[in-house]
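Subject: Interface between my chains keeps coming out wrong

I've been trying for a while to get a sensible model of this assembly. When I model each chain on its own everything looks fine, but I need the whole thing in one frame so I can look at the contacts. Pasting all components below, labels as-is. Any help appreciated, I'm running out of ideas.
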Amino acid sequence: MPKVPNWQLGREMDYPYERGKPQRQFAAVFNINRCIGCQTCTMACKSAWTFSEGQEFMWWNNVESKPYGGYPQFWDVKLLALLDEANPDGQVWDTSAKDAQNAPYGRYDGLTIFEAAKKAGARQQALGYLPSDKEWRAPNIYEDTSVSWSQGSSLPEHSTWFFYLQRICNHCSYPACLAACPRKAIYKRAEDGIVLIDQKRCRGYKKCVEQCPYKKPMFRSATRVSEKCIACYPRVEGKDALVDNEPMVTRCISACVGKIRLQGWIDDEKSPVYYLVRKEKVALPLYPQFGTEPNVYYIPPRWVPRPYLEQMFGPGVEDAIDRYSNPSEELLGVLQLFGSTQRLIFSYEITDEAAIGFDEKGREIVRVPIEEPVIVRPPQHLNIT
Amino acid sequence: MALVAAVLPAPTDEDLAEMGRCYVEEFARMGWSEDAVMRVFCNPFYRGPHAVYRRKGEQFVRGAGRSGDRRGWERG
Ligand code: SF4
Ligand code: SF4
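Reply #2:
Try treating it as a single job with all components included. I did that and got this:
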């Protein structure tokens, strides 16, 4: 297997193909601290792309309540268990081996899903499993299970910490779905790194469903082929009828009620996403140890026990939370850009008064005041009961 | 691996406090006034904030908005 560099792991790793670096890489940051679990993103995606026959199991975007929820059920617990079995007690990081550019979180000394498959001599390109039909059946199982405030009751309270995890395809730099497909029906676009399934080539072997560690390709029995999030590529290309050839963010990102999402490029220093991930290091990849170099990054929730978060987002958690809780002026400004426009922000500027977003040609597309004015509705128009 | 055949860490008082601080600071960063935030926390309809309010008390919630965060109420 060729060796490819993986900056999230701070080392090279095995991958079935040579590195094919796109001109630029689609990426997004989701701020978990702000998500209210309203599922508007989920429905925005569904109404745009997956409304037709067989749609009931097609959730390209889903939001699950951690730690109990998951779609398909137990997806991450099962993958972690498989990896642990393949390399008992060996899935560890060396955080002393840090390097700002090539190893910002240190070096991962465990096995990735590609390396675990190779070690096992399995026919799989990446360690994985096929979820059962039952596990696909309940997209929103255990939502909000652990939140309650019981008044007037003497029963013991059963509440614990939880948080919402927003999930789309990660448009990985080293996609396991692509590595797994025997038909070579999955490809990564040279222009923006978006990973797509060519549905004409797909024969429904479900190898991508089996080997994507995030379980984001879904098999639709009505069409007998697999499908997945397409990063709203017509919008990214500027083909949405709403605007004139201007790149727009995805439906889930533009519809987000909590304004928790921001889209950009991971490899363009001018992008606010680059700033959040590579410079400020406040947003982290999801399960980087899987080895696919995922390109959706998360600002971790502040109140969740650190061992759980470190397992999920790697060793960068403590620093990320520290920076988010004590933000710099620049970070506060960039956070204002989240959900501020449907257009894709390519670069930004933070002044004392405003956070300003620019398009690809450097034209201003959005300006958000740092101190937002608050307008209180007059009493006769209050809509709170 | 913490999730494999292991119990999840139980919430501590500090976890709850941190969740409460996070709620308050997110509102404060959006420019909400102390009064507006208190109305949310006092209302049982908003279960998460209300649970923090009931367990930690009014002074905690007010204090969370005033201290620490640079976008807190004191600035506004
Ligand atoms: S998240 Fe899964 S489906 Fe998406 S690119 Fe990565 S491996 Fe492929
Ligand atoms: S729309 Fe935004 S706030 Fe609502 S569930 Fe989705 S990510 Fe969370």
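Reply #3:
Confirming on my end. The first helix of chain A runs from residue 40 to 49.
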